[in-house]
TrEMBL record:
Its EC number(s): 1.6.5.2
Pfam families assigned to the protein according to its UniProt record, in alphabetical order: NAD_binding_10 (PF13460)
Annotated keywords: Oxidoreductase
Source taxon at top rank: Bacteria
Source organism of this protein record: Nonomuraea helvata
Name assigned to this protein: SDR family oxidoreductase
EC category: oxidoreductase
Length: 281
C-alpha cells in the first residue's frame, strides 16, 4: 500500500463507504474520517482535524451541512501539505431558484466550492443529483417498506444517480491525473417520476409500493404528525420542491466524462438492491 493514506471525510456515509471499499480493493491506503475513526475526525471539533489530515496528500471532502467549515478545513489541509482535494457538492448550486434563500445546505455548498476553487490546490468538484440509494438506504426506505411513498413531488421526474457511480468518479479524481479543475455534474441516464421509480421497486420486491402525491401543506402536517419539528418539516418540503418544479429531470454528463462509460440505470440499482435484501422488512 502507498504510505500516504487518502483521507475520506464522511467515510461511513453512503458515498464514503463505497469510496473506501473501492480504494482498498486497489490496495490504496485509506483513512476513514469519522467520529468513530482512528484517529477521530469530527467536523464540529477542529482539534480533530490536524491528526486526521496528518500525512495525507489527498482528501475527499463531504461537507458538514449547515456550517461554513469547508474553507477553514481546506486552509488547514493546505498548510499541512495536502496537494489534492475532491469535494462532494450538490446539484443546483449555481441554479437560481433551485434552493431557497435560507437553505443551509445550499450556503454550505456555495461557500465550499468557492473555498476549494481558490485554495491553490489541485481540485475536483462533484455535483450529484438525488441518490438512487435514497430509496434503499436513506430518506425514502421506511416509506418503501410501509408501501407508500408520500411526497409533494407532483409528477416531476428525477435523473437519479447511483452512489456507486458517485464513488467511482470520486476514486478516479482522487487517484488519477486529468480531473484537476473539473466540476462533474452527476446524474443517471434517464429521468423517472417518483411513481415510475416505485413501480420498478414494486416489480422487484413482488409487492405494491404506491406513490401518494401530497400538497406541501399536507406533507408538512404529515411530518409534524410523526413528531418532526416544524422547521425540519418545512426544510424537507423545500428540498423536494425542485422535483415538483421540473428542475431535477435534466441529464448530466459527468459520469461519462470522468469514467468514459454511461451511468448506471435506476433499474439496475433496483435489481441489485433487491438482491441484497435492501427492502426486507
Amino acid at each position: 500500500m502507498t504510505q500516504q493514506p487518502i483521507l475520506i471525510t464522511g467515510g461511513t456515509g453512503k458515498v464514503g463507504t463505497r469510496i473506501v471499499s473501492l480504494l482498498r480493493r486497489r490496495n490504496v491506503a485509506v483513512r476513514v474520517g469519522s467520529r468513530s475513526g482512528v484517529p477521530r475526525f469530527d467536523w464540529t471539533d477542529q482539534d480533530t482535524w490536524k491528526r486526521a489530515l496528518a500525512g495525507s496528500k489527498t482528501v475527499f471532502i463531504v461537507p458538514h451541512d449547515g456550517e461554513l467549515l469547508t474553507r477553514p478545513f481546506v486552509q488547514q489541509a493546505r498548510d499541512l501539505g495536502v496537494e489534492r482535494v475532491v469535494l462532494l457538492s450538490g446539484r443546483g448550486v449555481d441554479v437560481p431558484g433551485y434552493a431557497g434563500d435560507d437553505n443551509a445546505a445550499g450556503r454550505t455548498h456555495i461557500d465550499g466550492e468557492d473555498a476549494v476553487r481558490s485554495c491553490g490546490l489541485a481540485w475536483t468538484i462533484l455535483r450529484p443529483g438525488w441518490f438512487a440509494q435514497n430509496f434503499s438506504e436513506g430518506f425514502f426506505r421506511d416509506a418503501v417498506l410501509a408501501g407508500e411513498v408520500r411526497l409533494p413531488a407532483g409528477d416531476g421526474a428525477v435523473s437519479f444517480v447511483d452512489a456507486e457511480d458517485i464513488a467511482a468518479v470520486a476514486v478516479a479524481a482522487l487517484t488519477e491525473d486529468g480531473h484537476e479543475g473539473q466540476t462533474y455534474e452527476l446524474s443517471g441516464p434517464r429521468a423517472l417520476t417518483i411513481a415510475e421509480a416505485v413501480e420498478l421497486i414494486s416489480e422487484a420486491v413482488g409487492r405494491t409500493v404506491r406513490y401518494v402525491r401530497l400538497t406541501v401543506e399536507e406533507f408538512i402536517a404529515h411530518l409534524e404528525g410523526e413528531g418532526w419539528p416544524k422547521a425540519d418539516a418545512v426544510a424537507y418540503a423545500d428540498a423536494i420542491a425542485p422535483i415538483r418544479h421540473g428542475m431535477d429531470e435534466h441529464l448530466s454528463d459527468g459520469v461519462q466524462r470522468a469514467l468514459g462509460r454511461p451511468p448506471r440505470d435506476f433499474a439496475r440499482f433496483v435489481k441489485d438492491a433487491a438482491t441484497a435484501g435492501a427492502w426486507r422488512g
